[in-house]
M48 family metalloprotease
Amino acid sequence: MPNFKQTAFISTAIASLALSGCTAMGGGAIPSTSAPITSNEAQQGAEAHPQFLQEFGGSYQGPQAAYVEQVGKNIAVQSGLGNARESFTVTLLNSSVNNAFAIPGGYVYATRQLVGLMNNEAELAGVLGHEVGHVAARHSQRRQSTAQQNSIIGAAGAILSGILLGDSGLGETVSRGFLQGSQLLTLKFSRSQELQADELGIQYLNKAGYDPRAMATVLQSLAAQNALDSSLQGNNASVPEWASTHPDPASRVQSAFAKAGQASGTTNRDTFLTRIDGMMYGDDPSQGVIEGRQYLHPEFRLAFTAPSGFYMVNGSRAVSINGESGSGQLSTAPYSGNLDSYVRTAFSALAGSGQALAPASMQRNTVNGIPAMYGTARVTSGGSQVDVTVFAYEFSRSQAFHFATIAPAGRAATFTPMYNSMRRISASEAAAVVPRRIDVITVRPGDTVRTLANRMAYTTAQEQRLRVLNGLGSSDVVTAGQKVKLVVK
């Protein structure tokens, strides 16, 4: 949530590695050659590119970005979509979610968080090759032809769908209002299309001289991160696929290994680790940071705490709060100095065009010295009722922020502790919010996984985080001279 800006909702067909809720659909034969980028596709990509950057945290600058661009262009030319590296635009996104994308026109993207999870250059090439494969096979066009062009899901919106969707009326529209705050927008692809993109990515790896098994190993790392995220969020079961930033890569690992066969090639591990050394990892303080259940935004000087049992996902326009008993988000909107009008406008925005949604009543409040106002509306959806609440705070005469939450009828109070936790933070507290970065070190004699884990800039699950970050199994050890990644402040 870098500037809490209101940005355009992206309806461009986005090809993503971290796809949610895939449905059965024929992917078609693997093309031996790809049709070149058309002028229409080039125009479509050029128009979507600025919006896409804005939606996903902007581009990450520096030598790591130049390296990702170099590798991405080298693998993209293997697709036949363009005859030259200049046919492609490859961008490292300043986002703390694990994701990669490509859109028609030769535009390819990977988040710095996903790159940080990788362990060699072949994995980076494989992920970007997978995305290019979606474009080469024209998967997004096939999805559009089945009238699912706008089937976009985000973490908050998807969780809300468990309560609201299935109703073509107001409930669905409200959930889509929540959805727009998520950074995890993605176009759904079928399982067969995912496997086809994996296979194309493996073909590109082979043609470029990389180890084709890298596609499987990066999917293994994503599966391990998925399990770790679930554990850190306190879930006994894994996070549902539609709520995950990288759903169900585990189901594709064995398929990718089988397709790679016994072929071998370069991985460029040491080069990769050297080139990503120092890259930011986790939340960018300019976008706000999540520390356990606490969210802090040093620029806007605010902080709040999510309810017990809930977890948060930081997005470009909102931070989402998700749990079994409800979901919500914190965002902002233009403010004229009238909190009553602000709250009512927020309700209308949730309902969307052609729908009516208004609070049953409005109440003023003061939270930790901050003027506040809130209202709740009860909505019938799918034969059940839910409570939608907007709780707004005036931070200045020109700046307000608001929670928009949804919970089963009668359980809106689940979020009361969160509403009451909103506070201003001091200049010193804001200054103490600093980014985490990847530190590539060489293992010394006497170092162990445990001693290295103690250097990780986290207070919980240090060893598990270290193992997942470095692709280490539960019984793997480190040896002197080996390069490993740490996350430090």
